[in-house]
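Case 279 in the screening queue. Each case pairs one protein sequence with one candidate compound; here the compound is 8Y4. For every case the pipeline is the same: read the inputs, emit a complex structure as tokens, and attach any notable structural observations.

Predict complex for case 279.
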Amino acid sequence: MLLCCGSRTLDLTEPLVMGVLNVTPDSFFDGGRYDQVESAVQHGLAMAEAGAAFIDVGGESTRPGAQPVSDEDELRRVIPVIEELAARISVPISIDTSKPRVMQKAVAAGATLINDIYALRAPGALETAAALPAAICLMHMQGEPRTMQAAPQYLDVVSEVRCFLEQRIGACSKAGIAPDRLLLDPGIGFGKRPEHNLALLARVADLKVHGRPVLIGVSRKSMFQALLSRSVDQRLAGGLAVATASVLAGASVIRTHDVSETLDAIKIARVLMSAGFHL
Ligand code: 8Y4
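Case 279 output:
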């Protein structure tokens, strides 16, 4: 399975890790200040060093209840970090945004993957992404971040997510985006209750619509509060268990805050598969 990522083609035959680099004020960042740019860049470099295959730079919090930010604020946070990382490492940089102007400037600054939780549904996003030399992660979300966890509802969550991904692949195709640029994502925690998240994780193989690779992001998410009663800094083991299970079930990319630990878990999943493990 190949992913066209700007001028590069990535081989997704072996599962890869995407490291999360938040440059949002609710983590530690308010943008632009040299020391903050430098500490974000250092964190990105450390994740690349640890073996991340992508560094996902995000300037808008997508946690439930988070406040939206302006184009200008988001650009001020992400662009200096992307420019500096792109100058210093060859690891593909991903831009976590739904805003067309941020997509454009981030790709100009060196990003080669657009990670959009709205799956290019914002006005102008589809056309903008089509014209840029970058791969795209299409994620499913029911509702919007501010309210999505109020009352998630599905008749059949797996069919509905599959159907959504199918529709977005179709919209991409109509806009001139080749399928080899697409990565798919069920959006764990985005308008989903724990039982919806579990149903999707149990069916990762069914989410590979048109054979495209699937990304799974569970790192530190609130499903571990519900399942294990663990606070954010106590969710590593739960995340590794889900990463391992997802890879065994056919996931191609794991998005995580914990790169080296997740790579170890993936390595175990892979050697188990080589030893004959199958679901
Ligand atoms: C603590 C820390 C509690 C982080 C919650 C969180 C995904 C994603 C996010 C995902 C893709 C998050 C931007 C949510 N999750 N993009 N983004 N897939 N493609 N919450 O699952 O990490 S942010």
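Case 279 observations:
- The mean pLDDT is 95.
- The two ends are 20 Å apart (CA to CA).
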